[in-house]
Design brief:
- The complex is a heterodimer of chains A (325) and B (107).
- By secondary structure, chain A is an alpha+beta fold.
- The mean pLDDT of chain A is 84.
- In chain A, β6 and β7 form a beta hairpin.
- In chain A, the strands form two sheets. In chain A, strands 4-8-5-7-6-9 form a six-stranded mixed beta barrel. Chain A has a two-stranded antiparallel ribbon with strand order 2-3.
- Helices cover 34% and strands 14% of the residues of chain A.
- Chain A has two domains: 76 residues, no CATH class; 226 residues, Beta Barrel (Barwin-like endoglucanases), CATH 2.40.40.
- The termini of chain B are far apart.
- Chain B is built from five helices and no strands.
- Classes of the chains: A alpha+beta (325), B mainly alpha (107).
């Protein structure tokens, strides 16, 4: 007879609890030792920063406050080549017209060409002026109202590296095979834990096509680094849950509307966002594992925006402020 | 913003995967990730201070206080440190990663 007796299940619970505490305690001890070492060896350096209220272990929080403050004040914190802010370049479809290609390809060319001239060479938090240009660009080329700041919320960065994530368990007993038949999508496997908001549905019976779509097109953002994440609860948790975002691959112009369903990645991975296997497959193809993207909140105040790929061939050119050939 | 001037030298994807396996839920993952973050800051800064001549420590501190995300700090360090400071940062992160991975794998 397999399995454990009900009286033995506490063994696993106890082991999990001990493991969590064990790692936390070990890491805390290591951190304490490293802090002590730094403080004792370089007391002047330590004091110089402590006097300004800076805790070196929480340097990211300090950075966050500095940049948020700079963004609010419109201060130039990062160097812009030749000191000038870019302007929105040509929106003329004529300029990008290639007779051998359809309007959808031309639209994508317009987007990529404009992104090239607006974005810095290396990913970094963007200045408000840069974000404002991008908002205009997304509105005009993609027809999507996307905002870097929505309802006062702004992510730690809107321009960063996205990495591929695994599938999330949607309900108790969910398996990888229940997600899709597509081997390309299945190969990423299932995440060991649940998403930041737990199961998407309490049971398989409660699953709906809408819920399936949320997991299929999910995004991961670094809510753990929001300066007020721990102090402004449950508001922030609710605000970010399944919040729609526009993700644009800055190298090829492919775009997806996704919903935030998990928190991460850790800053020390060198990544800033995550995307479901479907999101990543659409943004860059089957071998795309990470790359630079823009991620803005979708403003649905003027109408619902569906989750999934932004299909250029379905964009109504007449509705855009483009100069049509 | 969650950016520090040496962020681009941190690419610890594998460590994150291991952490996700040991964390019981997202809150615990976040807590452990932040602890590792702290540890990285202490270790990386110690490794830099070790090779940066003492007379430049005050300026280094003021640059960090002004904007820890400014990548020009790396340029400042390169101009003051004789050794390859990027290599030193990467080595310190590698050693720490091995220590943490060893710790997490011990069960």
């Amino acid at each position: 007879m397999g399995g454990k007796l009900p009286t033995q299940t506490y063994h696993k619970t106890y082991k999990d609890k001990v493991d969590g505490e064990f790692y936390r305690n070990k890491l805390k001890l290591k951190s304490f030792e490293a802090e002590k070492n730094l403080k004792e060896k370089y007391p002047e350096f330590w004091s110089a920063l402590s006097e300004k209220g800076i805790n070196l272990g929480k340097i990211r929080e300090h950075s966050s406050k500095i940049i948020s403050g700079g963004l609010l004040a419109g201060t130039l914190l990062f160097s812009v080549p030749d000191g000038k802010m870019p302007v929105l370049p040509s929106m003329s479809l004529e300029r990008f017209k290639d007779k051998d290609m359809g309007d959808s390809v031309n639209l994508r060319n317009i987007l990529v060409s404009n992104l090239d001239s607006i974005l810095p060479k290396r990913v970094r938090p963007l200045m408000p002026q840069e974000e404002s240009l991008l908002e205009k660009l997304f509105g005009q080329v993609l027809g999507i109202k996307a905002k870097a700041t929505l309802d006062g919320q702004h992510l730690n960065t809107t321009y960063g590296i996205i990495g591929i994530e695994q599938h999330l368990r949607r309900f108790p007993g969910d398996t990888l095979e229940k997600h899709t038949d597509d081997p390309l999508v299945l190969k990423e496997g299932m995440a060991p834990g649940l998403g930041a908001w737990g199961y998407f549905a309490p049971s398989s019976e409660k699953m709906t096509p809408e819920i399936e779509n949320i997991e299929r097109w999910y995004a991961v953002v670094q809510t753990l680094y929001l300066p007020d994440w721990n102090t402004n609860q449950p508001f922030l948790r609710n605000w970010y849950k399944y919040r729609k975002v526009l993700i644009v691959n800055t190298e090829n112009g492919r775009a997806v509307v996704a919903s935030i369903a998990d928190s991460g990645p850790a800053a020390w991975t060198g990544k800033h966002f995550g995307g479901s296997p479907e999101v990543m497959n659409y943004l860059g193809g089957p071998s795309y594992k990470k790359g630079p993207v823009l991620l803005f909140f979708v403003d649905e105040s003027e109408g619902e925006v569906p989750l999934g790929p932004v299909e250029y061939d379905k964009i109504d050119l007449e509705a855009k402020n483009l100069v049509k050939a | 913003m969650s950016t520090v001037f040496y962020d681009r030298f941190l690419k610890l994807d594998k460590l994150e995967k291991k952490l996700k396996k040991v964390a019981r839920d997202n809150d615990e993952f976040s807590e452990l990730a932040l602890l590792i973050d702290e540890l990285i800051h202490y270790r990386v800064l110690s490794s830099i201070l070790k090779v940066l001549p003492k007379e430049h420590h005050a300026e280094f501190a003021s640059l960090i206080a002004k904007n820890p995300a400014d990548e020009k700090i790396i340029d400042f360090l390169k101009s003051k440190v004789e050794e390859d400071v990027v290599k030193i940062v990467k080595e310190s992160v590698l050693i720490l990663t091995l220590e943490i991975t060893g710790l997490i794998s011990k069960d």
